[in-house]
Design a protein that fits this description.
It is a single chain. This protein has 366 residues and is α/β, with parallel strands linked by helices. The protein is built from 12 helices and 18 strands. The protein folds into 2 domains: 128 residues, Up-down Bundle (Four Helix Bundle (Hemerythrin (Met), subunit A)), CATH 1.20.120; 209 residues, Rossmann fold. Helix 4 runs antiparallel to helix 5. The longest helix has 41 residues. The protein is globular, with a radius of gyration of 20 Å.
Length: 366
């Protein structure tokens, strides 16, 4: 995608030295576009933990490069396994993280230590390239869904109103995004779309990241409080919900940013289609009960009790929202049961959120 007419991916190897890794510091968006240079595995782990990079596909890709950086220091078996385990443990919910590290180890374990660095950069690059291809395919398949809605309604009915929760755009992936990819393609095709952007408390990924992305691309959008979505659905102002996900079970349960479950309940009550966009790397074929088996990350209470923003003087400051002494809980994700999901959009096609639907698209996992 482009920023100020310059094409970027969300992670890349610095062309000047050929080995350090570049990312956007997402904790600085939308107020500043800071590009970080990562030179050590520990820096990568810190970037993932602190959400300088976030989004399930991007976390996996960046972690893959983190292992390549680690091997530059020590490519022995013991060091590789240690650093891989450390990276894999940085965040628990997104399955892409463990998938990417596992794929890297499968490629690297049979190799002699002297051959591992070059192979690690090659494999990390392949992971990134495949992510871009998958997300572009998700965009095309999701675009068909938007076109179907337009055909049913007719152009004279006004914009197609799409609600999304959290950020599932190109800065949550290597490029294109998942839930936002169909929206970008629809807008570029001239379809009249408008996006309701949930603020996504407590880290405000919607208000800070999704709104910034859509605005940069020229897509009409409106930021709303997290609790406004149900009201809009009741009054016929939402035609479609599309969200991303950090982990999908083999039976179609979906883990996504906290608050997604409530949007799905509201959508079901009001007959609004609720679709989830994901690359196949986000499917966890080992589990079937998302509520019981998906680990839910508990983050620091300060993310709830405090908030950062831009002052009138142009300074980014953090202020406290809650009374001193009030405790805060901060589960970062929730699980939407498959029965509330209209369908899944993957790179291989759209399917029902069921074991049969997923196996029809991915028979090799049956």
């Amino acid at each position: 995608m482009k920023i100020n007419d310059v094409s970027y991916r969300s992670v890349w190897v610095d062309p000047e030295d050929g080995w350090s890794v570049r990312i956007f510091d997402q904790t600085r968006l939308p107020w500043a576009l800071d590009i970080l240079r990562l030179t050590h595995c520990d820096q990568v782990a810190h970037a993932i933990r602190t959400m300088q990079v976030r989004g399930a596909p991007l976390i996996g890709a960046v972690a893959a490069y983190g292992l390549a950086l680690a091997l530059r220091v020590d490519a022995s078996d013991a060091a590789m396994e240690r650093d891989a385990a450390m990276l894999a443990a940085t965040r628990p919910t997104a399955v892409n993280l463990g998938w990417a590290i596992g794929r890297m180890l499968t490629r690297l374990r049979p190799l002699a230590p002297a051959d591992r660095v070059a192979a690690a950069y090659d494999e990390a690059g392949r992971i990134c390239d495949e992510d871009v291809i998958q997300n572009e395919a998700i965009g095309r398949l999701g675009l068909e869904l938007i076109e179907e809605i337009r055909a049913q309604r007719g152009d004279a009915a006004g914009p197609i109103n799409i609600l999304t929760h959290c950020n599932a755009g190109w800065i949550a992936t290597v490029d294109w995004g998942t839930a936002l990819a169909p929206i970008y393609m629809a807008h570029d095709r001239g379809i009249d779309v408008h996006v309701w952007v949930d603020e996504t408390r407590p880290r405000n990924q919607g208000a800070s990241l999704t709104a910034w992305e859509l605005g940069s691309h020229g897509v009409p959008h409106t930021v709303i409080a997290d609790n406004a979505g149900g009201h809009l659905m009741q009054h016929g102002r939402v035609d479609l919900v599309i969200v991303g996900t950090d982990r999908v079970t083999r039976t179609g349960d979906v883990a996504n940013k906290i608050g997604t479950y409530l949007k799905a309940l509201a959508a079901a009550d009001n007959g609004v289609p609720f679709w989830v966009a994901l690359p196949s790397t986000t499917i966890d074929w080992s589990i079937s009960d998302g509520v019981r088996e998906i680990p839910i990350e508990e983050r620091a209470s300060a993310e709830v009790t405090h908030i950062s923003g831009l002052t009138g003087a142009g300074q980014v400051e953090t202020v406290q929202l809650t009374p001193k002494g009030s405790h805060a809980a901060n589960p970062a994700f929730d699980v939407t049961p498959a029965r509330l999901v209209t369908g899944l959009i993957t790179e291989r096609g759209r399917c029902s959120a069921t074991a049969d639907g997923l196996c029809d698209l991915f028979p090799e996992y049956v």
